[in-house]
Amino acid sequence: MDFSSKLLEQAVDQMSQLPGIGKRTALRLVLHLLRQPEAQTEQLTKALSKLKLEVKRCRNCYNISDTELCDICANPSREEELVCVVEDIRDVMAIENTGQYRGMYHVLGGKISPMDGIGPSQLTIKPLIDKVKDGKITEIIFALSSTMEGDTTNFYIYKQLEGTGIKTSTIARGISVGDELEYADEVTLGRSITNRVPFENSLKS
Amino acid sequence: MDFSSKLLEQAVDQMSQLPGIGKRTALRLVLHLLRQPEAQTEQLTKALSKLKLEVKRCRNCYNISDTELCDICANPSREEELVCVVEDIRDVMAIENTGQYRGMYHVLGGKISPMDGIGPSQLTIKPLIDKVKDGKITEIIFALSSTMEGDTTNFYIYKQLEGTGIKTSTIARGISVGDELEYADEVTLGRSITNRVPFENSLKS
């Protein structure tokens, strides 16, 4: 693209570094900001800078937090012996939204993915193992997405936990509530039969 | 959405003010920035602030420019008597990319759209009329999109120009080069027959 303005070009270049934002979309967004009052650009840039500079990782669960210890870890009514292992804050938000979980979390910060150059040392796996070895945790729930990377990460952690005697589980995979069987994929349907649950359980929620 | 961090929430709120960016996409973009080195956020926010604070409108054509007079208006080899009326800088970039146009531009900054509260006074129509009345321009080419708003804007300017005796034209509408007739819409095909051009013209480019 041939810009008549260096300033515009730089702004578009920077905006198009964001994932899923191409040059055309970046130009559309930047032109939108130009049409808006100056305050909007200022608020956007301030919020981004402030976040980047001031945000913390909770020292217990590594979730994004404004404080040293996040609200969930600081809440005395949560079940401290139960830890759900997730990839990032979006998973924490999704599980919290269900209102069904009263345990703690451990945010890995990603999945093991050699293709993207992400190994175990870049994730918060070591602190998780250390927490388990401290002996306060009785069960680890794996809630990573069931992709190759997710399964690899689960298995790696599982292996590291060998000998600790801790109970491990994964969230149930199965047919979504309300879905038709005929449209379900075979792997999911197969697993939902293998891992069938007592009928009485389905009466509870 | 229920954020564990106010800082994160503010950044997502601001990001989702951009057109076409919902809360989920905003969260994805902000989390991406958090994973990148601090320099990236800094460069992005600096480029946006700098653009908003320092960018100018060319005093002749109202295009976005770093200087008082944009490169096109300042170029003595462009044909000063020919002015192409466009909506915004993206149209200027598109026409410049063709390499087929050597005249000047006039950037309106939008289209007349009562639905969005945009009237003639918010656009740079008055300066255009004044330029025409100065007498240096011999032809105005309308290159707005052929939507209701575009047609309204064209017609409004056309009416304002009545009595000045200036030549007006619009860019040709027709079947795209390489397109099959059977897939063309009727209006476009109809116009391309009504406004047919001498066969010799098609041999030139």
Automatic annotation (TrEMBL), chains A, B:
This is Recombination protein RecR. Belongs to the RecR family. It comes from the Bacteria. Keywords: DNA damage, DNA recombination, DNA repair, Metal-binding, Zinc, Zinc-finger. InterPro entries: DNA_Rcmb_RecR (IPR000093), Rcmb_RecR (IPR023627), Rcmb_RecR_Znf (IPR015967), TOPRIM_dom (IPR006171), TOPRIM_RecR (IPR034137). A zinc finger (C4-type) spans 58-73. SMART domains: TOPRIM (SM00493). Residues 81-176 form the Toprim domain. May play a role in DNA repair. It seems to be involved in an RecBC-independent recombinational process of DNA repair. It may act with RecF and RecO. HAMAP family: RecR.
